[in-house]
Structure prediction request, 510 residues.
Amino acid sequence: MKAATETSPALLATILTHIQHGIIVTDHKGNIVLVNPAAEGLFKTCLGAQLNAQKNILIAIHTHHSLYEAIANGFKEKAHTEEIAKIDSSKGEECHVHVVVEPLDEGYLLLLDNVTDNVFAERAKSDFVSLTAHQLKTPVAELKGYAENMLSGATGPLLDKQRYYLEQMKAVCDRNFHLIENLLDISQIEMGVITLNLTPIAPHLLVEEALVDFNQELARKGLTLERTGFDKDVIIFADPVKTIEVLKNVINNAIKFTDEGGINIIIEKRGNWGVIKVVDTGSGINEMQREKLFKRGGVFGTLFMSGHGAGLGLYIAKEFMTFQGGTIDTLPSTDKGTTIEIKLPKFTSRTPLGKKIKPIQVWLNPKGKKDS
Amino acid sequence: MVTAKKPVVLVVEDEMSFRQVYTDALEHLGLEVIATADGEEAWSILWSKKIDIVLLDLILPKIDGLALLQLMKAEDTTKNIPVVVSSVIGDDLAIHQAMKLGAHKYLPKGSTSVTEIARIIQHIAKAEMSLDQSKPKK
Prediction:
């Protein structure tokens, strides 16, 4: 293959003319050296501006705050940077531009792509999932609420048979609500639209939030609950909502498969990680089940047929942990029971605390790999 | 004999069924409940009655939950009233924004039981009332 430097200027000019990416080359001060037709077209569409009339890229875009920031950041970093900038076009329409800034010996290379259609498609998917979530969850939550209030005595005393019927109704609602939540999570994962809100947080706070839903079930089954290491001084960098959901899935399984003894939740510091272990004294899992545990549908088969769920919760847990740069795994156990270990990055002084941390939109391609 | 004052909860919830179950659960625990279906009426109630704690849905007509929370936090009269957000939507960003705006707690509707939500609200309201009573009176 010929090196780019050996290619004729005429051929390079043809490539620059016909390539779909907008290409701008500037010197170190942002003065424009080269602009291709795609960049001209993008500027006309999104900014209503003629780029070839401009001398400096930062001056040309100074009224478009998000685009200015994206390019100025790239110049400041003097390293490869990528961002998506939102622009309100001259016609009042929304425009989204994917900006890559690459430093060169003589200045900078800017690659620009109009990704507005992609952004709108992702937003439509996300809105669809949110709307579906609301429409599916609300009726089940309503039924649950009525049953819970009647069982708590808020509507008066109950006959034994009434109590039994209501307990069954509540159990059906619980299972269905959990299934709907899992299916909606899978839908978001498969559609490739997940929002992460990473923040420094103490892991014991997340565990306590996750445990709120399980006090009654622990009491009903007569299981003990121990907390170890909750006083440890460790801060992790995590999405609280996603991590609580992971913990709920793990704790739910631990309780489901434990009929005597109890659960111990252990918090540890280990190198660059904050670690949360959920240890139960339940029936344990064999090697074959361990291999499939975090795979989609991994525990279909006998466990599913005996009413223990569709095996989606731990698959979702693994995906959510991976998005956050964490891990989840089972530990080999010589005793009865199962240990699930969750690791998340520790929040350190190197994490930019002073900088405002924006929610990170993690976009995936259909095969589930991160694009940014 | 002095009767202990009941904590007053403002329930802001547009779904009639949830207004009903929250009101029943909270009254069963001995709290006084004022319930409303929209954010605008809630804002009006906050200025006319002594409210100890707010249970707030995020999706509301007229003024939505986040906007109401923002209004509350901007005013001296209402900024210290604890707000518990409970919603069934899967919008993590809205929940994150609510916590950033100063919501005391988020309790997911449906997965956290109504009785547990009521118990947590009772606990927070009583703690706030004890704090108020221990402050020196001007």
Summary: The first strand of chain A starts at residue 22 and ends at 27. The two ends of chain A are 30 Å apart (CA to CA). The CA atoms of residues 53 and 60 of chain A lie 9 Å apart. Chain A touches chain B through 36 residues (CB under 8 Å).
